[in-house]
Design brief:
single chain, 251 residues, mainly alpha, 59% helix, 0% strand
Length: 251
């Protein structure tokens, strides 16, 4: 079994190498309020970014927020109270709109019941573990969604989301075993990062591992010949032992 201290050191070296490639700090890609980020994350499940982004914009066009709602994207009370069939039609481009429309409305109703309105300001008063637990009590919200809401939204909290690309890189480099699913991997990978890291550093870690999975460590035929992590990656070394020897000779 690998020593946890060794894994933490490896995680930091992977972070350093990938930051050199992709540039850290990585700019946040938008500034949605946490409720809007929650809906955006729910739409993105098993859906390409272009399709979920289009569905999110369609909700804003159909039920626009007020003029003071900077990047709020929609009148979520109107979405909550609309006929479910209409919401489903608006988000038809995502995967499983027939499931996501009623789930989003159920979550909006549950938030209204718990807070007396449609706001996630309560999360500001909670620690990151408490805020994630609060969110994960909502129907259909798991570790990835709770972390995304806290990290990507204007809350800017130090929570680590793990998507399929991030997870693949972590498995192949040996940070986590292949038997560990995406959901449980959140806690393990987060524990490998320094506890004093701020929100930007944790966000950077997710972004650079995700980008590496998208641009180099492909699901099929990973580009090990140009991978900066080859000397740290048992999978790449097994696939290309000659490349690993060349990298060691140059080191």
């Amino acid at each position: 079994m690998t020593d946890p201290a060794d894994l933490r050191a490896k995680a930091l070296e992977i972070h350093r190498l990938l930051c050199a490639v992709h540039g850290c700090p990585v700019p946040y890609f938008h500034s949605l309020d946490p409720l809007s980020e929650l809906v955006s994350s729910l739409l993105s499940h098993r859906t390409r970014n272009a399709a979920s982004g289009a569905a999110f914009k369609a909700l804003r066009r159909r039920w626009p927020g007020g003029p003071d709602a900077v990047e709020r994207a929609a009148d979520w009370a109107a979405v909550r109270d609309a006929p479910t069939a209409e919401v489903e039609a608006v988000i038809a481009g995502v995967t499983w709109p027939e499931q996501k429309a009623p789930r989003i409305q159920a979550i909006l109703r549950r938030i209204t019941e718990r807070t007396g309105g449609l706001s996630l300001d309560v999360l500001n008063e909670l620690s990151v573990p408490e805020a994630r637990a609060w969110l994960e009590e909502l129907p259909g919200v798991g570790p990835k969604t709770s972390a995304a809401v806290l990290s990507f939204s204007t809350l800017r909290r130090a929570a680590l989301p793990v998507d399929s690309h991030h997870h693949r890189v972590a498995v192949r480099t040996g940070l986590i075993p292949a038997s560990l699913a995406v959901g449980p991997s959140h806690a393990v990978l987060a524990a490998q990062l320094p506890p004093e890291w701020d929100a930007q550093q944790v966000y950077d870690n997710h972004e650079v591992l995700m980008l590496h999975g998208q641009r180099c460590c492909y699901y099929r035929d990973p580009a090990c010949d140009r991978c900066v992590l080859l000397t740290l990656c048992p999978t790449g070394q097994a696939l290309h032992p000659e490349r690993e020897e060349e990298e060691r000779a140059r080191a």
